[in-house]
């Protein structure tokens, strides 16, 4: 391979780092790949670091020492996050999204990678300082959102099941009252899925009364886990009833949902 010019090398370095977010890459790897000195790579990385800060797309962490290297931390700028959430709120306000029974259709948006990736970055930025060890969600619609958040944080994800699965092995199960249906339901988690005393970040797509979030918190107590944060995409604020959990972060609030007039009001609160 021909030796790259500096501009070409910087583009290649940026691509390598962005394809492996939160992964420590030794400088020697870049030096060998691009056939140049580590001191030259260090200068390139300083330029890349400056470009990332200016663009608001993340920053680089440099670890010194023999086992050191550089790590790319993905981020989203405040301006871009505001635009993403405002656009999402506008799409949710479409009267065609009101379903029979007074439900809001969100499934198509929750499985769209172009929407999910920035949402994951928003949650990651909000909870990174809490230093979670794992991202936890409950099946089904919260899984994609939790997965992109886990990816942005460089963490594993754990999925709580609705009922026992024979393929999960020995499980811990609890009953909880669903905030939306007010029915008693069961959630379970394999004993192998979560190590004791881990720091847990809960991510879910929707919260009405908070019964599911409370159930997850109670289940985490069975694993002696410490819940360090709860992130919710859409929080229903249609009634004045207090939520069953506190200290959560919601990105959007559902203020009104009228199936008769066809009016929906979703606003960004981030």
TrEMBL record:
<dbReference type="Pfam" id="PF09182">
    <property type="entry name" value="PuR_N"/>
</dbReference>
<feature type="domain" description="Bacterial purine repressor N-terminal">
    <location>
        <begin position="5"/>
        <end position="74"/>
    </location>
</feature>
<dbReference type="InterPro" id="IPR029057">
    <property type="entry name" value="PRTase-like"/>
</dbReference>
<dbReference type="InterPro" id="IPR015265">
    <property type="entry name" value="PuR_N"/>
</dbReference>
<dbReference type="InterPro" id="IPR000836">
    <property type="entry name" value="PRTase_dom"/>
</dbReference>
<dbReference type="InterPro" id="IPR036390">
    <property type="entry name" value="WH_DNA-bd_sf"/>
</dbReference>
<dbReference type="InterPro" id="IPR050118">
    <property type="entry name" value="Pur/Pyrimidine_PRTase"/>
</dbReference>
<dbReference type="InterPro" id="IPR010078">
    <property type="entry name" value="PurR_Bsub"/>
</dbReference>
<dbReference type="InterPro" id="IPR036388">
    <property type="entry name" value="WH-like_DNA-bd_sf"/>
</dbReference>
<comment type="similarity">
    <text>Belongs to the purine/pyrimidine phosphoribosyltransferase family. PurR subfamily.</text>
</comment>
<keyword id="KW-0804">Transcription</keyword>
<keyword id="KW-0238">DNA-binding</keyword>
<protein>
    <submittedName>
        <fullName>Pur operon repressor</fullName>
    </submittedName>
</protein>
<comment type="subunit">
    <text>Homodimer.</text>
</comment>
<feature type="domain" description="Phosphoribosyltransferase">
    <location>
        <begin position="122"/>
        <end position="243"/>
    </location>
</feature>
<keyword id="KW-0805">Transcription regulation</keyword>
<dbReference type="Pfam" id="PF00156">
    <property type="entry name" value="Pribosyltran"/>
</dbReference>
């Amino acid at each position: 391979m021909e030796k790259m010019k500096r501009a070409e090398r910087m583009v290649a370095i940026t691509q390598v780092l962005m394809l492996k977010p939160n992964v420590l890459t030794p400088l020697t790897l870049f030096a060998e790949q691009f056939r140049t000195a580590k001191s030259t790579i260090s200068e390139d990385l300083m330029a890349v670091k400056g470009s990332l800060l200016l663009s608001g797309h993340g920053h680089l962490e440099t670890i010194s020492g023999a086992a050191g290297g550089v790590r790319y931390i993905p981020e989203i700028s405040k301006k871009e996050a505001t635009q993403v959430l405002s656009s999402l709120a506008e799409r949710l306000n479409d009267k065609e999204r009101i379903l029979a029974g007074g439900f809001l259709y969100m499934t198509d948006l929750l499985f769209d990678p172009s929407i999910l990736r920035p949402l994951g970055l928003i949650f990651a930025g909000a909870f990174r300082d809490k230093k979670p060890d794992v991202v936890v969600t409950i099946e089904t619609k919260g899984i994609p959102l939790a997965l992109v958040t886990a990816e942005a944080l460089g963490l594993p994800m754990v999925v709580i099941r609705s009922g026992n699965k024979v393929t999960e092995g020995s499980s811990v199960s609890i009953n909880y009252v669903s905030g939306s249906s007010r029915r008693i339901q069961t959630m379970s988690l394999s004993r192998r899925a979560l190590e004791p005393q881990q720091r847990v970040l809960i991510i879910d797509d929707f919260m009405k009364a908070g019964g599911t979030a409370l159930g997850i918190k109670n289940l985490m107590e069975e694993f002696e886990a410490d819940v360090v944060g709860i992130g919710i995409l859409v929080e229903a604020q249609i009634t004045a009833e207090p939520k069953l959990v506190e200290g959560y972060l919601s990105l959007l609030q559902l203020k009104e949902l009228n199936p008769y007039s066809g009016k929906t009001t979703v606003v960004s609160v981030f």
